[in-house]
Amino acid sequence: MALRTILVEGNPTLNKVSRPVVKFDDRLHVLLDDMVETLRDANGVGLAAPQVGILRRVVIVDTGEEILELINPQIVEQSGEQVGLEGCLSVPGKYGIVTRPNVVKVRAQDREGLWYEAEGEGLIARAFCHELEHLDGHLYTEKAERFLTQEELEAMYQEDEEEE
Ligand code: NI
Question: What does the pLDDT look like over 70-80, one tens digit per residue?
Answer without folding.
Answer: 999 999 999 99
